[in-house]
Amino acid sequence: MQLDSMYQEIILDHYKHPHHKGLREPYDAEVHHVNPTCGDEVTLRVKLSDSAGNGGPTIADVSYDTIGCSISQASTSVLTDLLIGKPLDHALRVQEEFLALMQSKGQVEPDDDVLEDAVAFAGVSKYPARIKCALLGWMAWKDATAQAVNGGKIS
Amino acid sequence: MSAATTFDVERVRKDFPILDRQVRDGRPLVYLDSANTSQKPRQVVDAVSEFYERHNANIHRATHQLGEEATEAYEGARIKVGQFIGAADETEIVFTKNVSEAINLVAYAMSNAATSHASAERFRLGPGDEVVITEMEHHSNIVPWQMLCERTGATLRWFAVTEDGRLDLSDIDDLLTERTRLVALSHQSNVLGTINPVRTIADRAHAAGALVLVDAAQSVPHMPVDVAALGVDFLGFTGHKVCGPTGIGVLWGRRELLDALPPFLGGGEMIESVSLERATYAQPPHKFEAGTMPIAQAVGLDAAIDYVSEVGLDAIRAHERELLAYALDALATVDGLRLLGPTEPVDRGTAISFVMDDVHPHDVSQVLDAEGVAVRAGHHCARPLHLRYGVPASTRASFYLYTTTAEIDAMVHALDVAKRYFS
User: Fold this and answer.
1) Between chains, do B363 and A37 touch, taking CB under 8 Å as contact?
2) Which ipTM was obtained for this model?
3) Other C-beta atoms within 10 Å of A72: how many?
4) Range of the structural domain that residue A86 is part of
5) Which of A58, A64, B226, B365 can pair with A44 through a Cys bridge, CB separation 3.0 to 4.6 Å?
6) What is the per-residue burial (b if ≥16 Cβ within 10 Å, else e) of B301-315?
7) pTM of the predicted model, to two decimals?
8) Preferred mutation among A33, A38, A121, A131 to probe B, highest tally of B CBs within 10 A
């Protein structure tokens, strides 16, 4: 069935049993993003820590609350699995890789090593109306992280 | 076919080539998104093609034969529209690109009244004045009034919506007062399907001294609409929802109001005389039609009005009433489905919005699409209304003259597939 190329088992699993869901303390920055075409919303918090050992900060926590479809909920859940505990520079690279995958119109072979479970969203990139759903949490994370890096001074 | 004869949906469908399409791996298209935009009959497509192939020229400017033919076609469309909605004459018909532009035209012209001549006094708003809308409006009938209130210092108020999807008129005496300058409301909700008691509200608004604008985007395609019977001052509708092309909309206004209303867009063909210091303006409707207008689209709208008139709006309405009753019954059998809007087929059109337990509207519409069923998911440009019902979005099915009960069956079947898929 054609639907299965979009709704991979991994996506449905994350949708039905989201990881790291809920808003937690402490956090350095919080953002609220909406998908204006459908009204879906995410509130997302990022906590950075300095203890990466290599001098750069680490993603200590990503917590979130969402109202949205299976794709937006699952992609935010996968994001937390991929990014929590990772060095910031690595996390940014994963985000860029995911963005490139979603803009690929299904033409790019995703890099399993970088994207792990997020490769399941390759099928979504073939449906223009759903790309924003998959990116909602990721764009919120990028925004919140940028604010956290700037000391939370920019709101 | 004639309205007097029996309505034959299969015969109507033959006029719409797109309905023969297959989508998503060979499934027959089930198009249930006509409140978004209607499909176009061959007669409309042919009229637009013929205009471009035989008569194309700019209007009101060219002195050659093609210019005359194009002008006649465009002005003929204006006459056709005027007759279609019961205007006093065609000078009350202003072409726009859509209803949004029609509403913005009135809203911006009203704020232009602040610096215009004395006869525009009645359109001037300021602090203490009120504009009244409703909670069920499309964003196109909310945002222009918010912006007008921001520019002028006037206050925006609104009628609430009841749990069963009707306007709450219980506080009408509080809402419509001597402070009310304009009431703007939809004739038929694009989400709930509710047909509003426009005449009742218009009479009360007029008694309070207010002007009344009605957004008829969702009613004009589906029922006979007569501006005099509605008793309003301005009415907007759009061509693409009534089997016509995109890019052509209509603002109707009472002539004495269009005479006094300042222009919105300035430019070519809306003037009487121009010097470098100032300009005087053409008579309505040309005063409101700056620049080259959507000429072929007006010709297409003319053909669309001919088409729906020939089928008969009464016949279309009767057909849609049958579809509505059938669909409401069919959807009542779907477990976990909640309708937004009236559940009875009374004072109600055929836009049917709903939410399903545990399946987001985007996911519902994706599964339906995979089954060949085209519906709309989201807030349908009516976010305040969705907030009222405590949901971020809904799925909307909407019908037109070419819709069949078999297509409604296909949707109900696809809804079962969606439920199973996400359970």
Assistant:
1) no
2) 0.86
3) 27
4) 3-148
5) A64
6) bbbbbbbbeebbbeb
7) 0.93
8) A38
